[in-house]
Automatic annotation (TrEMBL):
The keyword Iron does not apply. Pfam families: WD40. It is found in: Nucleus. Gene3D superfamilies: YVTN repeat-like/Quinoprotein amine dehydrogenase. Keywords: Nucleus, Repeat, WD repeat. PANTHER family: NUCLEOPORIN NUP43. GO terms for cellular component: nuclear pore outer ring. It comes from Ornithodoros erraticus. This is Nucleoporin Nup43.
């Protein structure tokens, strides 16, 4: 993956970026959209951006801001449920659902202060959100609770009241009603909302703190986890007594990890607190690459810059990243076009 890198300074620390998925057909040649979320500011915001491929221009200073909405607290996670349905998790303990068109963001529903201290009633951060289809969502929080929500219903459908004694940091659906959750205590737990009294799987990594999680695009039993140490692990949950692959990135906390959804072998991208972006790609035998640690090449796409690269997303030939340098990074490896932003 040889990439051109473009940087747009946006005057906000960016905690999350997500590319709008209904534009896959345009990512190799024309227009795409992304949503960014900020943190550690007053106010924080969600912002919709438009960018466009062009052979004539290679400038990133034409990134077009389409619309922004203020939010109460830092944006801790973003998740597109469909091409125009976006879920947001906030440090205020709240989760929100937005309609995301090609022009603006419109709030559809708010689950206010889902996560709170049961003794004091004070809000606690909602640390992650995931979706299954257009009407099922799951959130995790620093209160140790796991919720399943339904679009249109004001109260949670399912409550797991003591999902973890340590902070839950990341969540993804692996199939309907089943989620995987990572914690700073080094646990990777799988919960079935149909039988929520205890996890159906509870795996541990001694001495590690899990910070991020990604599901394989075509094999939902394959999960990648990133660690505070910079370690990257791939798990086959059908035989998950230990990771099937262990990879070493920079010796810096990993912020986010993502499987490439359309590349053979589903290579992985990871961003780190030192500001680097690393691409883990199979050298050969792509179909079996994540069944072992051999045959994987790690390549640095963005060098360390001293301040965290907090988030990444990838679709088609486009990778978007958000940083504490108050910048959005766009990387394109399209051979026919250079990436300009409009």
């Amino acid at each position: 993956m040889s990439s051109s890198v473009y940087v747009k300074f946006v005057s906000k620390k960016i905690s999350k970026v997500r590319l709008k998925p209904d534009n896959e057909s345009s990512l190799d040649g024309r227009t795409s959209f992304l949503v960014s979320g900020s943190w550690n500011d007053r106010p924080n915001e969600l912002r919709l951006w438009r960018c466009q491929n062009s052979e004539e221009s290679q400038e990133a200073d034409d990134l077009k801001s389409l619309h922004g909405v203020d939010v109460d607290g830092s944006v801790t996670d973003l998740c597109f449920a469909t091409g125009d349905l976006l879920a947001a998790a906030l440090s205020s303990g709240t989760a929100r659902l937005y309609r995301c068109s090609s022009e603006c963001l419109t709030e559809l529903q708010e689950w206010k202060t889902l996560h709170e201290n049961s003794k004091t009633g004070h809000a606690m951060p909602c640390t992650g959100v995931a979706s299954y289809g257009s009407d099922r969502f799951a959130t995790i929080g620093e209160d140790g609770k796991l919720f399943q929500l339904s679009h249109g219903q004001a109260k949670p459908v399912t409550v797991v009241g003591n999902a973890s004694s340590s902070c839950m940091t990341c969540i993804t659906y692996v199939r309907q009603n089943v989620v995987a959750v990572g914690t700073l205590g080094g646990r990777l737990r799988v919960w079935d909302f149909a039988a929520p009294k205890k996890p159906v799987q509870d795996l541990g990594m001694r001495g590690e703190r899990l910070t991020c999680l990604s599901k394989h695009p075509s094999q939902p039993h394959v999960l990648a986890t990133g660690c505070y140490s910079g370690r990257l692990c791939v798990w086959d949950m059908r035989r998950a007594d230990r990771p099937t692959a262990n990879l070493v990135g920079p010796h810096s906390p990993m912020s986010e990890v993502a499987f490439h959804p359309s590349r053979p072998g589903a290579p992985l991208l990871s961003c780190f607190h030192d500001g680097s972006l690393v691409y883990f790609a199979p050298v050969m035998n792509a179909a079996q690459v994540w069944s072992h640690s051999d045959g994987v090449e790690a390549r640095e796409l963005v060098p360390a810059r001293g301040r965290p690269l907090n988030s990444l997303d990838v679709r088609g030939s486009l990778v978007a990243c958000g940083s504490d340098t108050e910048a959005i990074y766009l990387l394109s490896d399209s051979p026919a076009s250079q990436h300009s932003l409009m």
